[in-house]
Design goal:
With 203 residues, the protein is α/β, with parallel strands linked by helices. Helices cover 40% and strands 16% of the residues. The chain contains seven helices and six strands; from the N terminus they run H-E-H-E-H-E-H-E-H-E-E-H-H.
């Protein structure tokens, strides 16, 4: 059954909340979406076996930036300035990409800000991809959606709880923080071994 143009346009205008483990591919997916959109709209091939994209008159990206000594705001403030600029410039049917929305403050206050941004951003009917590590909050949104157009994607894991770098419907159940810490050598045993070595050497 073929989708009508109206249905296709509706599917192309959704707010998608992405969850998943650290190093599971969320940020890379956002980068791939943005790059594919830019390549397609400038006449270049898209790095995909098949792609169907909607023309956008604007692309807005809010991602983590390295701090500098001359910036006036902290991490959260800098992000909120970017979010405000999106609202000042965005129009209907545009593409919005936000990595780790409001992650620079405590969860309870961040959740209120995220809900506010989602509800008001929806009025522009954009296509939006937004990542978050607030899994319980995301699960609550999936059970009681604040807006009708919101969808949820999670980074998929294999049977060994390893990232597959693929995505499917739903909300992730873990960020795999402990596994990431173990992989990078930041467990109690690892750090105590470093301390013993350094103190033993007289450092």
């Amino acid at each position: 059954m073929r989708r009508s143009p109206a249905t296709s346009r509706a599917k192309a205008r959704r707010l998608i909340l992405l969850t998943g483990p650290n190093s599971g591919g969320k940020t890379r997916l956002l980068q791939a979406v943005g790059l594919a959109q830019l390549l397609a709209q400038t006449g270049f091939y898209v790095p995909a076996a098949r792609a169907r994209l909607t023309w956008r008159t604007g692309l807005f990206v809010s991602a983590y930036e390295e701090t500098s000594v001359d910036q006036e705001e902290g991490r959260l403030g800098t992000e909120l300035v970017r979010i405000r600029r999106v609202f000042e410039r965005i129009g209907p049917d545009q593409l919005v990409i936000v990595d780790e929305l409001c992650s620079g403050t405590n969860p309870s206050e961040a959740e209120a800000l995220i809900r506010l941004v989602l509800e008001l951003l929806d009025r522009f009917r954009p296509q939006a991809y937004i990542t978050t590590h607030f899994l319980e909050f995301a699960r609550g949104l999936s059970e009681r959606p604040p807006i009708s157009r919101i969808s949820f994607l999670q980074a998929l894991l294999d049977q060994r709880q390893k990232p597959t770098y693929q995505f499917g419907p739903g909300v992730a159940s873990t960020s795999l923080a402990a596994q990431t810490a173990a992989r990078l050598g930041v467990t109690r045993e690892d750090l105590e071994a470093i301390i013993a070595q350094r103190l033993g050497n007289g450092s």
